[in-house]
Amino acid sequence: MNNHSILVFIEQNDSILADVSLELICKARALADQLKTNVSAIAIGHDLKSQLNALGHYGCDQVYYVSDKRLKHYTTFPYAKIVTTLIKKYTPQIVLFGATVNGRDLAPRVASELQCGLTADCTDLQIGDYQLKDQHWENILLQIRPAFGGNIIATIVSPESSPSMATVREGVMKMIVPNTQKTAQIIEETMELTAHDFPAEIIEVVREAKTINLKAAKIIVAAGMGVTTQESLMLIKELAKTLNAELGCSRPVADAGLLNKEHQVGQTGTTVRPNLYIACGISGQLQHLAGMNESKRIIAINTDANAPIFKVAHYGIVGDINDVIPKMIKAYKFNK
Q: First vs last Cα of the chain: how many Å apart?
C-alpha cells in the first residue's frame, strides 16, 4: 500500500457524511492523480459502515474506520488520539480537514502532536515545486488562502513538514459526478480507548436547522454596501422573493449587521455556484469575487461604471438599485 497517500478526515453528524468531506475527497483524488498515489480517509463514529461506500464513488481508495458507541458524536480528545495514531501508522504525505467547527478544533491538536505545519482556511490546493536558495522541492502541496483581511491571496508551503496539513473551507472544492461503480476498501481499525480518553460526556445534542442554504441555491440576489438604507434592503429582499431566490450579501453588509453571517458570500463566507447571481450595489472586491465568480450567469447593478464587479459580470447595469430593482420586479411579473 502506498504510504505517501493523501488522507482526508471524514466528518459526520448523526451518521450523515458532511458535504465538505466529500468535496475534499474529490479534490484529493485530483491531487493524488498528479502525484500518482492513493486517496485514503479516516472515519470515526458508530454504525457508519454502510455510509462509507459513498466515499469510493468520489475517488477514495481506502477508509480507515474506527467504530465505538462512545464515538457517535465528535469529542475532542478521543478523536484527536485516533487521528494522530492512524497518521503515524500510515504516514500520509498530505492530510486534509474541513474548516468546520470540528475540523478547526481537531486539526491544530493533531498538528501539535505530530509537530508538523498546518495551514488554516484554505480556498485552493495545488501540487507544485518550490525553490528556496539552493534547495528545491518537487510535487509539494501549495496551500492557498486569503490573508490580511482577504486583501491578498497567499500561497503557503511547508516543504519540510511531514505530513503537510490543511483545513479547507466548505464549498470551495467542486464535487465531481459520483461513479457508483467504484468502491473503497474499508479497513476496520481497533483502538484502545479508556475512560481517561473521555473526560467529557455528551448528554444531549441539540441542532438548529439552517434556514439559509446558499450552496444549494439556483438563484441568489446579493446586497453590497451600495445598499445604504433599510428601504434599499427591502427592495432587494422583494426581488429575491419575486425570483424565489436566496438572499446573499457581501462581508461589509454582514459586518454592519444589516444581514447575518449566514447570508455572506465570499472567501470569509460561503462559496456559491448558482445558475444566476444578481449583485446589487456590490463593488466586487477580490474576497467577494472569489466566492461567486463561478456562477453560471452574473448580473451586476452598480452606480460606478468602473466597479470591478463588471469585469466578471455577464450583464452589467450602471444605475441606482432604488431605480433599477423596481423595474426588474415589474418586468419579471409582467413577463411571467
A: 59
Segments of 73-223 assigned E as strands: 94-98, 118-122, 124-132, 135-147, 152-156, 164-168, 185-188, 219-223
Here the cell at position 122 is 484554505
Q: pLDDT per residue over 77-114, tens digit each?
A: 999 999 999 999 999 999 999 999 999 999 999 999 99
d(CA 43, CA 40): 10
Asked if 250 and 222 count as a contact pair (C-beta separation under 8 A), the reply is yes
List the grid coordinates of 74: 465528535
Q: In the numeric block, which cell numbers belong to residue 11?
A: 466528518
Confidence of residue 3 (pLDDT cuts 50, 70, 90): low
- In angstroms, the CA 300 to CA 38 distance is 43
Query: Domain residue spans in the chain?
Result: 6-197, 219-335
Cα distances (Å, whole numbers) of residue 307 to 236, 272, 281, 294, 312: 19, 21, 10, 18, 10
CATH 3.40.190.10 is right for the domain spanning 219-335: no
Distance (Å, whole) CA 78 – CA 231: 51
* pTM attached to this predicted model: 0.83
Q: Which is nearest to 219 in space by CA: 285, 290, 272?
A: 272
Task: Give one DSSP letter per residue of 122-152, joined into a string.
Answer: ESEEEEEEEEETTEEEEEEEEEEEEETTTTE
Phi first, then psi, for residue 59 (nearest 5°) are: 115, 10
198 alpha-carbon distance from chain centroid: 29
What tens digit of pLDDT does each residue of 31-70 get?
999 999 999 999 999 989 989 999 999 999 999 999 999 9
pLDDT tens digit string along 231-275? 899 999 999 999 999 999 999 999 988 999 999 998 878 999 999
Judge if 6-197 and 219-335 fold alike in CATH terms.
Answer: yes
Q: Rg (Cα) of the chain, in Å, rounded?
A: 22
**Span 6-197: which CATH code?**
3.40.50.620
